[in-house]
Amino acid sequence: MLTIEQINQLVGNPNAEIDRIEFTEATKDTEKFSEAICAFSNDYLDHKKAGYLLIGIRKDGTLAGLKITDELQKDISSIRNNGQILPQPALSMEIFSFPQGQILVIEVLPSPHPPVRYKGKVCIRTGASKSIANEVEERRLIE
Description:
Layout: H1 4-10, E1 21-24, H2 30-42, E2 51-55, H3 70-81, E3 85-86, E4 91-98, E5 101-108, E6 117-118, E7 123-126, E8 129-132, H4 135-142
Parallel strand pairs: 1-2
Antiparallel strand pairs: 2-5, 3-6, 4-5, 7-8
């Protein structure tokens, strides 16, 4: 899991969103969360390191002023267990509090058995964005 020092380095840095880190201020977009979790599980660039979805940070790196609810945490937990991402992802969550709001950090470990699919689609990270893997990319994940 990221440390508070690492979180402090990300906050306020619009260039911190990379292939292993995604910012969002959305709290209800389970489709977006699921695609991000699937993409981090696939570890397309083979970092062999966790990916992080940070809920509560805008794309420009500023805090969105969120209060992380139990409902949001349950929604994220249900993504892991609802059978739409297979094989199931390994993830953990932690809340970080700041005067300007809270951040929910979801740590997603790379899958030992890619490709991981969300609703049958193989999601990958290409730079700071998500995409659907093409046939060549999917084959690379299998290898």
